[in-house]
């Protein structure tokens, strides 16, 4: 059975999540602060973390950042009482896979968990070989990419966006298409999330971000990955 780690300092939220997630057929563990959450992850194998943003000892952003810096790609759904675009973008930049604002529907949390695990299972089951675009080499099964032989570091969402662009090389992809494909649900027009991630990718793979050779902006339409001219 899939094991889910619930991290929240509000006992009423924990009880609500635990009941509904277990009712959906998952096993759960609980942590009430960020430090305890990291210890649990070190001691056990979890398939997904439901992680509150505002936590004692270490907040959710720091927990997420710590996991990603240590190459732990466990899927994370971040919960927060805030509803600001900045917090949403920042959480995703630190490596969260999904984002829900309190108050939330327990059914929606379960639906998001199932969607992420379904996508993760599909990714793991695919037999993927390396993808080469110019001097960039992408290894889908390893969540790894190299430029001129040097390993690049990405957050999970940055890598998934890069991979999606590479799998659709030469195609113009709208921001809404990228939101739907990479984030797996509608961000209600928050296309700045795509722009931020594109900017981050360019910083890592382009020689000159002002005149990108790999990821082109198609004005009024979206983005396109191309083979560089040289």
Textual characterization of the structure:
The protein is 42% helix and 20% strand. The protein is built from 8 helices and 11 strands. The protein has helices at 11-23, 34-43, 60-69, 85-93, 106-125, 156-167, 175-183, 192-205, and strands spanning 3-7, 27-31, 48-52, 76-80, 98-101, 131-133, 136-139, 144-147, 150-152, 215-218, 222-225. A 5-stranded parallel sheet has the order 2-1-3-4-5, with helices on both faces. Strands 6-7-8-9 form a 4-stranded antiparallel sheet, covered by helices on one side. α1 crosses α5, α2 (34-43) runs parallel beside α3 and α6 crosses α7 (175-183). The longest helix is centred in the middle third of the chain and has 20 residues, at 106-125. The N and C termini lie far apart (50 Å). The mean pLDDT is 86.
How would you summarize the topology of this molecule?
Elements: E1 3-7, H1 11-23, E2 27-31, H2 34-43, E3 48-52, H3 60-69, E4 76-80, H4 85-93, E5 98-101, H5 106-125, E6 131-133, E7 136-139, E8 144-147, E9 150-152, H6 156-167, H7 175-183, H8 192-205, E10 215-218, E11 222-225
Parallel strand pairs: 1-2, 1-3, 3-4, 4-5
Antiparallel strand pairs: 6-7, 7-8, 8-9, 10-11
Helix pairs in contact: 1-5, 2-3, 4-8, 6-7, 6-8
Strand content: 15-25%
Globular, elongated, flat, extended or rod-shaped: what is the shape?
elongated
SSE string, helix = H, strand = E? EHEHEHEHEHEEEEHHHEE
Number of strands: 11
How far is the N terminus from the C terminus? 50 Å
- The strand line-up of the biggest sheet is 2-1-3-4-5
Number of helices: 8
What are the low-pLDDT stretches, counting only 5+ consecutive residues below 50? Answer: none
**What is the CATH H-level superfamily of the largest domain?**
Response regulator
Q: Which architecture of the largest domain would the CATH scheme give at its second level?
A: 3-Layer(aba) Sandwich
Q: Compute the gyration radius: what is it? A: 18 Å
Q: How many domains? A: 2
Could you tell me the mean pLDDT? 86
Question: Within the CATH hierarchy, at the fold level, what is the topology of the largest domain?
Answer: Rossmann fold
* Helical fraction: 40-55%
Q: Which CATH first-tier class of the largest domain would you pick? A: Alpha Beta
Class by alpha and beta content: alpha/beta
